[in-house]
Model the fold of this input.
Amino acid sequence: MTATSIAARAPRLQSIDILRGLVMVIMAIDHTRDFLSNATFDATDMAHTNPALFMTRWITHFCAPVFVLLAGTGAFLSVSNGKPKGELARFLASRGLWLVFLEVFVVTPLGWSFNWDFSFVRMQVIWAIGASMVILAGLVLVTPRHWIGALGVVMVMGHNLLDGLNPAQLGGFAPAIHFLHAITPVPIAPHKMLIFLYPLIPWLGVMMVGYGLGDVVSLEPARRTRVLAWTGLAMLVLFIAIRAGNLYGDPKPWTQQSTGVMSALSFLNANKYPPSLAYLLMTLGPALILLAFIDRAPRQITGPLATFGRVPLFYYLLHLPLIHGLAILLSLVRYGQAPWLFHDMMAQRGATHPLPAGYGYDLWVVYAVWAAVIIGLYPVCKWFAGVKRRHRHPLLSYL
Done:
C-alpha cells in the first residue's frame, strides 16, 4: 500500500468517527434515563411500557454493537496503515487489559456507584471491548486476515445455539460460561456480586466482524458505499425474516399485542443480554447503511459528531460521573438528600438505601438533562481531540 493511497482514503475514514460520535451521543440518553427516569419497570417490558419510553431505550441499542464493531475496524486499519502485526498485537493486548481495569476500578466506582464497596460490579461494554481486544491480539498474529472476519460471522450467526446452556449443568466449566455467554450474577465474596452483562460470545465475534469490515472501508469510495449499503440492507432483510419466523436467532419471541404499534415494538424488542443474532442484525444493518452515507450530512452536524468520535474513551469516562452528579444535584434540590445515589442504581430497588417513593422524572426532564450533558462535554472533548492531534505521545492512545 502506498502513502499516496493511504492519504487519498483518509478523508473518507471521517465517516467512522462521525458514526462513532453519533452512537456516543445516543448512548448518553440511556444512561441519563438510568439515573433519572421515574419508570419503575424495564423500558422494554411490553406489559408496562409505552411507545415513547420504549423507543428511548430502543434507539440506544445501536450503541454497543457499533462501538465494538468499529473497534475491530480500527485494529484492521492500523495494520493497513503500516503498523506491524507484532506491534498491533502488543497494543491491542495492553489496551485491552487497560480497558478491563477501567471497567472494574473506574467505571463502576466513579461512574455508576460513587463508592468503593464493589458490592455490584457490572462488566459492560468497556470490559467486552477490552477482553475482545486481548483475544484479537492473538488472532492477528496466528490467523490469516480474512479468516478473522469469517470466524466472527460464524460466531455471530451461530451463538444462539448456546441459549439453552445452563451453567449449573457444566460442573467445573460453569465459571467460564458466566463470562462467555450466560447472564447470571456470580457471588465473589460476602455481599459482593459480579455480573457479565456483556459476555464474550458474541461480542468477540462482533469485533472480529469489524476487523473483517476493514477490507470494505478500505475500498475506493464509490465501491465502498455500494458494498456497505447493500450489506446493511441484506442484514435488515435477514433480521425481518428470522424475527418474523420466531424459529431461531432470538430467545425472546415477539408476540401480538393489544395494538398494532405495540406489536411492532414487540417485533423490535430483540434480546440484548446476550445480544441475539436478531438484535445484531437489527442494529448493525442500519449502522452499515449509515456508515455508507453519513459523511454526506451537513458539516454543522457531522463536525461535532466527529469530534466526539475521535475521543470515545475520554468521553465515556466523563459522561457517567457527570450524569450521576447531575442526578445527585437534582435530588438534593428535590429531597434535600441523595444517599440512594451513592450506590449502584441498577441494584437500588429494595436495597439498603432504596429510592424514595415517586423518585424520578418524566422523559422531558431526561432529555433536557441529556442535552445539557452533551453541550457541556463538547468543548472538553474538542480540547482533548486537539491535544491528541497535536501530540503523538503513545500514552494518549490509551485514553
In short: Residues 85-113 form the longest helix (29 residues). The first strand starts at residue 120 and ends at 123.
